[in-house]
Amino acid sequence: MVHFIDEAHIRIEAGNGGDGVISWRREKYVPKGGPDGGNGGHGGSVYFEADPELGTLLDFRYRRTHKADDGGKGAGKNCTGRSGEDMIVRVPVGTVVRDKESGKTIADLTERGERVLLAKGGRGGLGNTEFKTATNQAPRKQTNGKPGEAFDVELELKLLADVALVGFPNAGKSTLISRISAARPKIADYPFTTLVPNLGIVQAPEDHKSFVVADIPGLIEGASEGKGLGLQFLRHIERTSVLLYLLDGVPGEYDPSTAFKILKKELKHYDPLLLKKPAIIAITKSDAMSTDELKVFKRMTIAKQKPLVISAVSGDNIDVLIRSLWETIGKVRSPRT
Ligand code: GDP
Ligand code: MG
Predict the structure, then answer these.
(1) Where are the alpha helices (DSSP H) in 104-226?
(2) Relative to the CA of 177, which ligand 1 atom is closest?
């Protein structure tokens, strides 16, 4: 199975413990008040939690440092400082966390809802009350809070593509991916050196949601060249939820309806089950079409669907495309476990 890797580098910082304080009781009928300096509060810890709702590490590109609250300082009257609130960082199920310095794996969040302590908050310091002994009734001593643990980590997530682009060379697959993607995952254990899938993580129309689009080169080219290649790619496509057919709208060898038929035949030839996947059909390069051509495409149906007429160059209908991909993914996406 071909995997894609989404990565993020972040810093996590637990909260520092609050300092203990020196304070003395001052009460009306207690002439020589003893110590009443309270302890500092503990710093908040940082936890990671595996959230099945998240599909990529995209959010971490916008927020690099995750810090839990510091503990509060102690106060007189033996008041302990307030504890710093813990921070729960939500990551996709399947996220591996490594210490950046040592490269060691710190956590591997494989279960939905799994929670792991990553950085422990610093302990609060002691107030002078704690140092009172039989022989020292008036200790002038306190300790400061301990710093919270802090380190840089690398997050890594293996991805599967949600959407596979199906189209002839020059249909505009690469251009579309660069237009809509917010980040580029890396290719992991990829068996081919010459043909590398072009991938993109697309910000979904909902906050904190994203999906992965893959242009699988060689699916069509490979079909005519030899099956081995095509079959390898196919294994990848089998795991995607949605097919997006991209049909070149600029007059060329094939008109969109013909291109669609040929593409479908190629897929069927590999595995008829592929045709059971939900498919969205788009005609590309609307910016390069005449008004008349546009009219024709907007009225036409392909496989009983109204194709979207888009342009990755002008951005025409790209938002509509993203929305309909996202809706379709939502209907089929299996929970990420
Ligand atoms: P791929 O082979 O399917 O990946 O196609 P590319 O994305 O490489 O595009 C092939 C050619 O079509 C390139 O010259 C692109 O600049 C051009 N192209 C792609 N999308 C558009 C578009 O929306 N409008 C126009 N005018 N040209 C496009
Ligand atoms: Mg390309």
Answers:
(1) 173-180, 219-225
(2) 7
